[in-house]
Known about the structure:
The protein is mainly β. It is built from three helices and 35 strands. Helix content is 5%, strand content 52%. The mean pLDDT is 96.
Amino acid sequence: MSIEQLREQRIEAEERFATDPHRPRYHFLPPANWLNDPNGPIHHDGRYHLFYQYNPAEARWGDIHWGHAVSVDLLHWEDRPIALAPRTEGVDELGCFTGCAFVQDDGTPTIAYTGITPAPDQPRGRHESQSLAISHDGLLTWEKLAQNPVIAGPPEGLSLTGFRDPCVWREDGHYYMLIGSGIEGAGGTALLYRSADLIEWEYVHPITVGDAERHGTMWECPDFFALGDRHALLVSTLGRQMYLTGGWDREQLTPGAEGWVDFGPSFYAGKSFEDAHGRRILWGWLREAREQQAQLDAGWSGVMSLPRVLTMLPDGALGCEPAEELQRLRGEAFSAPATELRADSEVALEVAGDCIEVEAQVELRSETRFTLTVRCSPTGDERTDVFFDARGGRLGIDATRSSLDPGVQARVSEGPLALRTGEPLELRVFVDRSVVEVFANGRAAVTERAYPSRPDSVGVRIAAAGDGAAMTRLNVWRMRNIWDVLPGFDAGV
Ligand code: DQQ
């Protein structure tokens, strides 16, 4: 499809879905059908490129291609033709799975990905191998290498739970590739390979092996990079994404700290890149939390998270903030004066909306459970509660009452956030129709999906239980629709 046709397709899609109450308006998603993992994010020649696992035919996983979109500002996107399509014999007949993008020393943009081929004797009837594709026209079209697959299968003698999702980087005159895997009977791992020319690869060893109980039996989508004074390995496992940070020496990672990239199981398969400003930016796939039939009926499934900037904190924990560009999506503003919240009181704000950002600063007492409720109906029978429990130091989203629709998953997603003595809770809560993405104190994130059935489930409330709290700042903005600039949309790319 030409870029002009892709523009038309996007305009038609956004018009067609305009009345869908659950389709996000400022998170990226394809014009229609299925999205899962972000693939090969890269900042190249002043443009952000986002590739993603894509089924162009329907809103369910299958027949996986690489979709592609490009942006100059991290906010507004233009669709590009499909970057990788399956069906190359002996390479990827059954799918082009997750991978990464990088630029070779001679300037050639390159994709590394997992190709899936049929293998009736193997688990799930499929074989995983690693392949490369290069672009000669500024990342628009991609040519698969004749030498594919460049790694035809796993190393001999290992009993593995999987072999996919390459992550490539350059270091000390070598190319390195990490492949997501797991050692039967031990735990998830990432297998390290080394190459001089990207074609011949030598297996080195697992860079570290997790503990099956704590870290799962298979690590999907490894993402490995230097950040601050350490290295970080992100892996997707146990239905959530975790990080391990530590020293990197003689091709071994020595993990010293670990944690969840996001406390919610909706956020998955996150993949990062460094932009020209030196920022480490992460995107993740926000999975749906409603029945498959509802996704098929909607005609779309899967959303990209907001871009998150990662930092290395002094104790080795991974810090995380929404990219500052997002402030440019802020529209009409509402501010509440500083308020003392009495214990066990709930205050409804005068502002409402399903595409908003809420920024709050709260001083808590030791027994306070603070709640910021979004997507709340007038009677409170539908409500999504973002909470922080000072006693246990827990940040979370209670989505058990998000929707009266019984087909929606009702769950609580939470994790640890320890505030220092006197440190207020600093919340940024992004509501985008069915997405609720929460960032706290630059070091914790939790994301959930919410599908209220009532059109009036748009209220915002604040409450303190157990003990009171002082709301020292509260700002709400209506967020702009990133596709509003259509038609005649020109994202400047
Ligand atoms: N999704 C891809 C795999 C990856 C998984 C397939 C993670 O490559 O392991 O669509 O969501």
